[in-house]
Backbone:
């Protein structure tokens, strides 16, 4: 089978790989669509020691079951999947917080991912989708669930309803864009986005109705936003987020571009700021996101770009160079 393989930092190659073997409790999926995630870009840059060259990346997927070692899962069924493979028995799994599973492994990191014609995955990771749902929608369930999970955590921390809040989203990548779209569907009409790429600013204005600005040219007003979502996670964006949030507000930290930095602990303390971290999503979040995508809560998705997997190496280069207006590129297996 054909697979797009991470062969060295900033290098992807289309190679022949063996058809995956099926183990007990697993299925084989034919990949119908797969997204390029920021974490895949991080690995492509050579910045993720957990993902070594020779690995097939990819975990934002839509597929069709073509072989099953579980009689409950029928061939021909269209699905998406939770790429976090969890144990189901640790304290976090039994609490329904399986995104924090103490024993988790992951598709596209500890086992071959979805940048291939076929892949194996435990049947327990499969997420049902409406059988007439598009492959593009289903492949977006994973990143969109990250946004949904983060916004759910924000709503628990707020003292006023979310639609009343003035909101700043830092970063117009896929998570920032999906967050803005979901916020608008929740009735939030005052959403501002900070984004350095002019093509992405235009896309956020057009499809998510955001007011946008270039943070290299201007800074957001201080103490002005009830909610700030940092979808970049750099030293600079953390400082911006803490400066922009108003007293009593919430900062949601999603991105992990830089792993450590000083933040304004004096403001965090004296202004009673709630600083939240978030990691992926739960299985319940994924199911809720599939339903939200299917009913159109994230809009028409015209901003998403689709490319054949044979052009995957160029897609990585274009995303890295900022040559595409789309915050998300989804690859399909055939031209």
Residues:
């Amino acid at each position: 089978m054909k697979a797009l393989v991470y062969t060295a930092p900033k290098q992807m190659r289309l190679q022949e790989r063996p058809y995956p073997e099926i183990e007990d409790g697993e299925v084989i999926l034919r990949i119908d669509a797969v997204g390029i995630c920021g974490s895949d870009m991080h690995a492509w840059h050579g910045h993720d020691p957990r993902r070594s060259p020779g690995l097939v990346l990819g975990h934002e997927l839509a597929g069709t079951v073509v072989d099953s070692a579980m009689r409950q899962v029928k061939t021909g069924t269209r699905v998406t999947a939770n790429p976090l493979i969890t144990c189901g028995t640790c304290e976090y799994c039994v609490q329904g917080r399986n995104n924090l599973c103490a024993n988790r492994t992951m598709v596209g990191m500890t086992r071959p991912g979805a940048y291939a014609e076929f892949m194996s995955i435990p049947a327990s990771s499969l997420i049902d989708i409406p059988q007439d749902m598009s492959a593009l929608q289903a492949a977006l369930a994973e990143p969109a669930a990250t946004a949904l999970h983060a916004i759910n955590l924000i709503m628990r921390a707020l003292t006023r309803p979310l639609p009343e809040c003035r909101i700043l989203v830092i970063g117009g990548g896929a998570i920032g864009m999906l967050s803005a779209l979901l916020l608008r569907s929740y009735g939030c009409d005052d959403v501002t986005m900070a984004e350095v790429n002019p093509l992405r600013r235009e896309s956020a204005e057009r499809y998510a109705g955001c007011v946008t600005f270039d943070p290299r040219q201007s800074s957001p007003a201080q103490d002005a936003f009830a909610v700030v979502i940092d979808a970049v996670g750099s030293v600079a964006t953390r400082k911006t987020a803490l400066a922009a949030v108003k007293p009593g507000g919430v900062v949601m930290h999603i991105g992990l571009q830089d792993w450590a930095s000083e933040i304004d602990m004096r403001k965090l303390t004296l202004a009673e700021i709630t600083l939240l971290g978030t990691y992926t999503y739960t299985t319940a979040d994924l199911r809720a996101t599939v339903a939200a995508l299917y009913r159109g809560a994230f809009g028409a998705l015209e901003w998403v770009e689709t490319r054949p997997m044979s052009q995957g190496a160029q897609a990585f280069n274009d995303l890295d160079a900022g040559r595409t207006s789309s915050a998300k590129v989804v690859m399909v297996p055939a031209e």
User: Anything to note?
Assistant: Residues 144-277 form a domain with the Rossmann fold fold (CATH 3.40.50.720).
